Amino acid sequence: LDWRTCFFAQDASDFGVCDWQLVQRASPMFDVAYFLCLNVDSSVLVSLDDDRELVAGYCGGLWGSAPAARSWVLQEALLDYRVNVLLVAVMVVVSMNPSDRNLCSSGRQVEIRRVMLERALEAVARVDCAGICDMFSVQAF
Which of 26, 30, 54, 127 has the least CB density, counted as fewest CB within 10 Å? Predict the structure, then answer.
């Protein structure tokens, strides 16, 4: 734990941790897509139905704790999730700058990046990101 990322209440009754590595304002589905795409093995998430079940569970948790989230229907959340799966995959590809020698300095780093890319691309296929492009009339190259 890096103490520079910790914040304490004045009376020391509470504390929090903030990871400044990836700070952004985005849809909550970005975090869900990032976690599921890059951290869950494809043998666990086999079809869009598997993703749908996890997104529904996440939304159920939001609906219980944030009344404003109730207007966010599951179909909208699932579409937002699929769009964010595509964004995560693009982010992974863009972050793999082959000219950066530090990225490939160890076998472990190479393996981590290989797995990230593999999982991201499997997720793009699993949730039919090509169908999203069709929905928004985005033409493929």
Answer: 26
Q: How many residues does the chain have?
A: 141
Q: What is the pLDDT of residues 22-74, one digit of tens each?
A: 667 778 889 899 999 998 888 888 888 888 999 988 888 877 766 666 667 88
Closest CA to 33 of 139, 126, 131, 113: 126
- Residue 115, token pair as written in the block: 């797995």
Q: pTM for the full model?
A: 0.71
Q: Where are the alpha helices (DSSP H) in 1-141?
A: 28-39, 48-65, 74-95, 107-126, 129-135
Sign of CA dihedral 100, 141, 22, 49: negative
Long-range CB pairs of 73-77 (<8 Å, 24+ gap) are 77/29
CB half-sphere exposure, 24, CA atoms < 13 A: 8
d(CA 89, CA 119): 9
Is the distance from CB of 133 to CB of 82 less than 8 angstroms? no
CB-neighbour burial class of residue 39 (10 A; exposed 0-12, middle 13-18, buried 19+): exposed
